[in-house]
Amino acid sequence: MTPADPSASAQPPATASFVVVANRLPVDRVEHPDGSVDWRTSPGGLVTAFEPVMRRHDGAWVGWHGAPDEEVAPFENDGLQLVPVPLSASEVEEYYEGFSNTTLWPLYHDVIAAPEFHREWWDAYVVVNQRFADATAAVAEQGAVVWVQDYQLQLVPAMLRRQRPDLRIGFFLHIPFPPTELYQQLPWRNQILEGLLGADLVGFQVSGGAQNFLRLVRARLRQETHRDEIRAADGRTVVARSYPISIDTAGLAELAAAPATAERAAEIRRDLGDPKVLFLGVDRLDYTKGLLARLRAFGELIDDGALELDEVAFVQVATPSRERVDEYRQLRDDMDRLVGRINGDIGRIGRPPITYLHSSYPREEMAALYRAADVMVVTPLRDGMNLVAKEYVACRQADDGALVLSEFAGAAKELRQAYLVNPYDINGMKDRLVEAMDDSPRNKARRMRVMRRQVAEHDIDHWATTFLDDLAQAQPTAD
Ligand code: ADP
Ligand code: G6P
Fold first, then answer.
1. Which ligand is nearest to the CA of 389?
2. Pick the catalytic residue: 200, 248, 286, 383?
3. Whole-angstrom Cα distance, residue 108 to residue 185?
4. Among the options 174, 248, 458, 459, which is catalytic?
5. Which of 117, 196, 212, 255 is deepest in the core (most CB within 10 A)?
6. Does 336 qualify as catalytic in the annotation?
């Protein structure tokens, strides 16, 4: 591994009383061909959600910096104390692309793609989880609160507890926890349950996930449970409960309300030829997000004559994601082909029905897109929560606009007033898109008002406070 100097200010390693551990740091290290180095915001909802949490709780963030074969010293970036964990190129392949994203990700998302099980990937997962546990043990003060995140690090709670019984350990899973029948396919099913039980509090997005976990702990590990409490093998009590994650609602609403955002939103609409109705999709380019079916539904609506080509536009923003994993490469090709076909078949000069943008944008641009869109289309086949749905709602201060939302996103449990769809049902989706578009302003406002209140009251602060308060009440730890 080659040592690398971060462009941000280097700091001596320090200890912290609050430590967040996630596969990724909030920034990725990017090296340009001329050798210069940049730090770029990492993709995905976990980072969106956690940045504001870390700004309010002084602490350290332990995670990978996104580049293989490089050791980076702990450093401060934009006020956050970051502790990089190195991964070799083969660990990126086996632990990150392999076990995390080709075994666990599809298994936990309803096996939408077939999970692959390889023993070498598991071995790498164990080695890397141990490295994260060691790095965390080194920065956590005596009695510190440690909050471990997501499916890439499910063994860390137990590994950490073995080294540091003085810590208070929380774990939160950002993706769905699967039904027991699917979970049981995993050759290492018991080890992962035991890994999670190293925590004092295990959090899930929705109550169904917590229930699946409790059921598995009873059936597979033969441990007693009472409501949401588990009596662990070492006599500790572990709590498993749901905490629906959220966004920095007030911060985003303020950005959306800014005059510059309004101007940019108007400009976006003008550049699209001032459509009467602007549909918007915003996702990581992931097969769980239901992108193909959604665009197919939209294309068919124009083809059928239910939508007028001159009156509508669909903007689909798709952040590049996990580009070396086969299923993601395949999806990228499928998207290119589908968008090309729809635009080629039914578009005309100056009026491509779909504008497809395969890149990442700053928050200001995202807020302008949300403001510009009349119908937000969020149709994942399965999603732990989906922050995009909440972000759209937060940006609609005039209580206009419509959210079409998959029943299979965790967010659907809270945003009941969305136009809910089964993303596998293309005809049903077409009907809902038209209904959302044509509904009266009064109905739209009524729905949006209730949803806006929900995301205002249940924002990321509320989420973090609820979880951390519960964690603080966990049984006292050893001295
Ligand atoms: P996931 O965590 O699976 O990616 P979420 O919807 O929960 O899905 O979170 C996605 C986050 O990434 C949101 O905060 C969203 O604003 C952000 N995002 C998605 N696409 C883009 C993009 N093209 N540019 C910038 N941010 C994006
Ligand atoms: C989801 C996962 C996160 C992950 C993010 C981006 O939100 O829950 O753990 O960080 O996607 O994916 P990536 O593989 O690029 O980190």
1. 1
2. 383
3. 11
4. 174
5. 196
6. no
Tokens 């749901």 correspond to 242
> What interhelical angle do 363-372 and 249-257 show, nearest 10?
70
Residue among 108, 282, 316, 378 whose CB has most ligand 1 atoms within 8 A, to mutate: 282
Name the pTM for this structure. 0.96
Atom of ligand 1 nearest to the CA of 44: 4
Distance 225 CA to ligand 1 centre (A): 36
174 is catalytic: yes
Give the Å distance between the CA of 381 and the centre of ligand 2: 17
Each residue's pLDDT expressed in tens, for the chain with a length of 479 residues = 444 444 455 554 589 999 999 999 999 998 888 988 889 999 899 898 888 888 888 899 999 999 999 999 999 998 899 999 999 999 999 999 999 999 999 999 999 999 999 999 999 999 999 999 999 999 999 999 999 999 999 999 999 999 999 999 999 999 999 999 999 999 999 999 999 999 999 999 999 999 999 999 999 999 999 999 999 999 999 999 999 999 999 999 999 999 999 999 999 999 999 999 999 999 999 999 999 999 999 999 999 999 999 999 999 999 999 999 999 999 999 999 999 999 999 999 999 999 999 999 999 999 999 999 999 999 999 999 999 999 999 999 999 999 999 999 999 999 999 999 999 999 999 999 999 999 999 999 999 999 999 999 999 999 999 999 999 998 655 54
Provide residues with CB under 6 Å of ligand 1: 44-45, 48, 282, 284, 317, 319, 360-361, 366, 385-388, 391
> Can you list the domains of the chain with their CATH numbers?
2-245+462-472 (3.40.50.2000), 249-457 (3.40.50.2000)
C-alpha to C-alpha distance for 50 and 461, rounded to whole angstroms: 10
Buried-state track 17-49, b at ≥16 Cβ within 10 A, e below 16 = ebbbbbbbbbbbbeeeeeeebebeebbbbbbbb
63 alpha carbon, closest ligand? 2
State the distance from the centre of ligand 2 to the C-alpha of 173, rounded, in angstroms. Answer: 11
- 479/467 Cα distance (integer angstroms): 23
From 20, 21, 23, 24, mutation site for ligand 2 pocket: most ligand atoms within 8 A of C-beta: 24
Is the C-beta atom of 24 inside 6 A of ligand 2? yes
Give the count of alpha carbons within 13 A of 3, CB side only: 4
